Amino acid sequence: MCGIVGYVGGREAAEVILDGLARLEYRGYDSAGIVVADAAPGARLDAVKRAGKLDALRSALQGSPLSGHLGLGHTRWATHGRPNDANAHPHLSEDARLAVIHNGIIENYLELKDRLQAGGHHFASETDTEVLVHLIEDHYQAAAELGRARERLVRAVRGALTEVRGAFALVVAHADHDVIVAARATSPLVIGLGEGENLLASDVPALLPYTREVVFLEDGDLAVLSRDGVEVTGFDGAPRRRDATTIDWDAEAAEKGGFDHYMLKEIYEQPVVLQNTLFGRFAGNGLDVRLELELDPRAIDRVVVTAAGTAFYAGQVGEVLIERLARLPVEVEVASEFRYRRPVVDERTLCVVVSQSGETIDTLEALREARRRGARTLAILNVKGSSISREVDDVLYIHAGPEIGVASTKAYTAMLAAFELLALYLGRGRGTLPDALAAELLQGLRELPQQVQEAIDRRASVAEVAERFKERRDYLFLGRGVNVPTAFEGALKLKEISYIHAEAYATGEMKHGPIALIDRSMPVVAVATASELYDKTVSNLQEVRAREGTVIALASDGDDGIRRHADEVLYVPAVHELLSPIVNVVPLQLLAYETALRLGRDVDRPRNLAKSVTVE
Ligand code: F6R
């Protein structure tokens, strides 16, 4: 959601913060703000806040730059209150000596606000965050006997934390103190350790130009950062030991590397990402995979998969793979529902959660629910050190590197690859996957990065289709079997970044209702690659054409016959049906990208969306 950056050290804080915010802008971006301090006794804090993208804040700062060596910055994704200047963070106390930025939600803010207003506090915004400022201010006044001692601010933050409920990350600075105080209750915060400087952010990319040594805060941690050190305690003040992690990707990996958009760069990264996900996990015998999991495949009777958005569609592909290869019953459910439906799971149920960020609150809470009910848990994850990684029994990392584009691409294909590995692992471990099929799939996986590269290399033909249909207002996506989720993911990509209405159905479902929508104006994108159900798919395409619908077919190389049933054909390399979702999604990602580009959309920062959804 929101982006957070804090800095204390020898540099001009404003420069570090603006740079960091730019690297986090993908997290949420309807307004931005910054506050800078120099711990001068009696001074007021200087804050500048602007609605809109970071450029609006940058322009405001050009006229009156802020100077100081300690500061906080924030990009906001509105939850409480409209995205305007007043609601942007930081929020300052009435004497402008205390500043707070925050990500997440304070659930009991209304009752706290009533009490604070009754006590004489004046509010300048509609946000829940501002409650924190006034609350900390009260606790700060109550600790007046500590004067300018650093402990006074820490005690004030701790005191406020005992009164608030919710899932959040909170960062505080005060004009009288040369420290930043930060607290984590569910929303992510990571500290960057420098020489004579320390930083903090809601995500690693903001820190990478300055350091690769980071400390991930955990729920209930309170950190005090000064230029010379970082101290971590619990909210109660008891010391907590947090080891540093070295980040093995650099700042450049988190930047665009010559591409016009992160999304395009990430689409092009997929062959390498697939190598990272897959290679190194094949056993030498050509029949097995080596995953470092505690999980005993024979100790489970059932699998439930839960996730959100694109990760959920990856889970649906996983369902087919695990059922087919491991002969285990699988159910897939969106995490926002799973967590509330009192799911029936036990110690012989494997609950698989899937998440790029590892911070999606619905998925995290679904995991917690599954654990409470005694399920064994496994996460398919990208971000190391993320909240989910710390609470799950086993992790299968997808090694996709930082995904910055809001519309997920490389994480999706890497999640699919991880599910291929998991299904093979379960199938071999349970004795349900014969050698011949295992060998065929493993060989297919080895060839996959190259085939995905070939699918990407055909971008020009996808661009022609995008050009032809860019003005259409509605799209239908169809797929069968293991490619039902491919259709859903294709529709999601298109609507997310081009704002074209797109629906997806299992191809066989079309005749049960959606067929009523078919006319000349609605393109139907149909996954018609080689499969057991190919002939049935072709019959369904004829039904579309009989109603003057326009068919854009996704077909396997060598399938010339498909041309008789389609207006446009996008060819992809022919692969094993069970591997095909990984190749098939590529032209659909490109179709969304090329269409959005032609419609002048902000591809990397589509409206209303945020990269990491840490509110319910
Ligand atoms: C779509 C997209 C979202 C995410 C969803 C889950 O392009 O990115 O639908 O897939 O918000 O996010 P993670 O995987 O971080 O849990």
What do these coordinates show?
The structure is a single chain. By secondary structure, the protein is of the alpha/beta class. The chain has three domains: 253 residues, Glutamine Phosphoribosylpyrophosphate, subunit 1, domain 1 (4-Layer Sandwich), CATH 3.60.20; 190 residues, 3-Layer(aba) Sandwich (Rossmann fold); 141 residues, Rossmann fold (3-Layer(aba) Sandwich). 35% of the residues lie in helices and 22% in strands. The chain has 17 helices and 24 strands. The strands form four sheets. Strands 3-2-4-1-10-9-11-14 form an eight-stranded antiparallel beta sheet, with helices on one face. A hairpin with a 4-residue loop joins strand 9 and strand 10. Helix 3 packs across helix 4. The model has no long low-confidence stretch (mean pLDDT 92).
